[in-house]
Amino acid sequence: MRASQQDFENAMNQVKLLKQDPGNQVKLKLYALYKQATDGPCNVPKPGVFDLVNKAKWEAWNSLGNLPKETARQNYVDLVSSLSPSSEASSQGKRGADEKVQESKDIVVTSEDGITKIMLNRPAKKNALTFEMYKEIILTLKNASTDNSAIAVFTGAGDYYCSGNDLTNFTSAAGGMEEAANQGAVVLREFVNSFIDFPKPLVAVVNGPAVGIAVTLLGLFDAVYASDKATFHTPFSHLGQSPEACSSYTFPKMMGSAKATEMLLFGKKLTAREAWAQGLVSEVFPDSTFEKEVWTRLRAYAKLPPNSMRISKELIRNNEKEKLHAVNAEECTTLKARWLSEECINAIMNFVSRKAKL
Ligand SMILES: CCCC/C=C/CC(=O)SCCNC(=O)CCNC(=O)[C@H](O)C(C)(C)COP(=O)(O)OP(=O)(O)OC[C@H]1O[C@@H](n2cnc3c(N)ncnc32)[C@H](O)[C@@H]1OP(=O)(O)O
């Protein structure tokens, strides 16, 4: 839900009442978001090199680039609420550098060495994504876009990276399939938007097999590192479904339509090396050294100048953003109808009753 003007004004008043100084970095962030929310993108000349305070403020504001006013307003409200005493006591906790943050039992978020690490933590269910997990990830990405970290990294606990959408999302909804399909389309659209709009480098550390939306989303990541044990599988037709997470656009663009068709229509499962050959994976590592090599590298990347990385990502992503949002909207509308189709309902019932396994 977007923050209203009233929420924004309440947040401004809350800042004045803060008992603890939030520190210079947070104050700069608040200033930048306030300016962006009220005046839009930075439009004043850069102060001189000796005007240190105003130069720091200008740089913070300027680093927000073309962030829309409404998003800046929302981020301001979120940031203030993360500083208020009530939310300090909440499960989300306060964000900052080198802090550990326990998000929930199924999504573990830590912030360390300039990296926000988002670990899917439902290993007994192969990290399948519940409705609650989608919502938590949306919030986590929103927070990570304004915290002190330089990059954000997704990975999975246990032997799987993620087995995709939890198929029981559709069978356990109180209002039945129709209600689940409506809810699913809204959540999915917002979920994918939060990846399209994420402003910092986003990296996937694919520790094991990935299925469905866990694979398609990779087309929206900036780098994908995979263990040689990982596989990549999108069994949409087997499930009577259709592609999501902008993969109907990113996959043909990345690997050509013939290879994209094998994955998205025929459900061909790729090994990590095949996925690398198709451009879906940046690099494959032997499983025995995967974690050590990848995290060493990521810690080094997280030390690079963060503003430079954001600006470079913005240049790359801005060419595509409008298109990606349009594709996402269309895919969600299509999927909503698919979820109510006989083909899909039969496939999900088969999975749930274990008559067939993919
Ligand atoms: C609202 C937004 C919607 C966005 C839409 C996205 C589309 C997709 O993501 S489509 C892809 C959906 N995923 C699947 O079709 C995978 C289904 N799972 C399997 O095929 C298999 O479980 C597996 C190949 C992933 C693993 O097989 P394995 O034999 O090694 O282990 P299992 O005994 O099957 O699994 C252990 C445990 O985990 C449960 N589980 C695994 N994946 C899912 C899932 N996607 N949804 C729900 N539950 C899942 C599985 O049922 C087992 O549970 P029990 O131990 O309780 O039986």
From TrEMBL:
Annotated GO CC locations: mitochondrion; peroxisomal matrix
One family name in Pfam for this protein: ECH_1
Coiled coil: none
Every ACB domain range: 4-89
The EC number(s) this enzyme carries: 5.3.3.8
Chain spans, region Disordered: 83-103
GO MF term (any one): delta(3)-delta(2)-enoyl-CoA isomerase activity
Biochemical pathway: Lipid metabolism; fatty acid beta-oxidation
Reaction(s) catalysed (UniProt annotation): a (3Z)-enoyl-CoA = a 4-saturated (2E)-enoyl-CoA; (2E)-tetradecenoyl-CoA = (3Z)-tetradecenoyl-CoA; a (3E)-enoyl-CoA = a 4-saturated (2E)-enoyl-CoA; (3E)-octenoyl-CoA = (2E)-octenoyl-CoA
Keyword Oxidoreductase: no
CDD domains the UniProt entry points to: crotonase-like
Subcellular compartments: Mitochondrion; Peroxisome matrix
Keywords in alphabetical order: Acetylation, Isomerase, Mitochondrion, Peroxisome, Phosphoprotein, Transit peptide
Function: Able to isomerize both 3-cis and 3-trans double bonds into the 2-trans form in a range of enoyl-CoA species. Has a preference for 3-trans substrates.
Family, per entry: In the C-terminal section; belongs to the enoyl-CoA hydratase/isomerase family.
Protein name: Enoyl-CoA delta isomerase 2
